[in-house]
Specification:
Elements lengths: L1 H24 L4 E2 L6 H17 L7 E13 L1 E12 L2 E12 L4 E8 L1
Antiparallel strand pairs: 1-2, 2-3, 3-4, 4-5
Amino acid sequence: MAQGHYRLSLILASILLVTVAAGALLGGWKPIADVNSPHVHEIGKFAVESHNKLAATTTKLKFQRVVKGEIQVVAGTNYRLTLTAKIGGVSKKYKAVVWEKLDHTKQLTSFQPV
């Protein structure tokens, strides 16, 4: 009888572990396979242009390229990008997060130097 309880406990623990592991993956960040795709380029450019509109400076960044990125599926898609942009002729790296909503509108949620 004790052996039966042990097996049942082991089965329940295994089910719980698989459920928790699967839940951790849902909504998690996943690498972007092709950071050179036109859509990822568009998201990166949007991030820089949005930052320029919000920045309290007349010196504007000029988008260059996306270096790496991750996506997270939410109510739409979050893009967490490392990108390069020029400021005053000097290339610098930045981290940006852009939320692309289900209606394909975009919102810059963070932008900071690396």
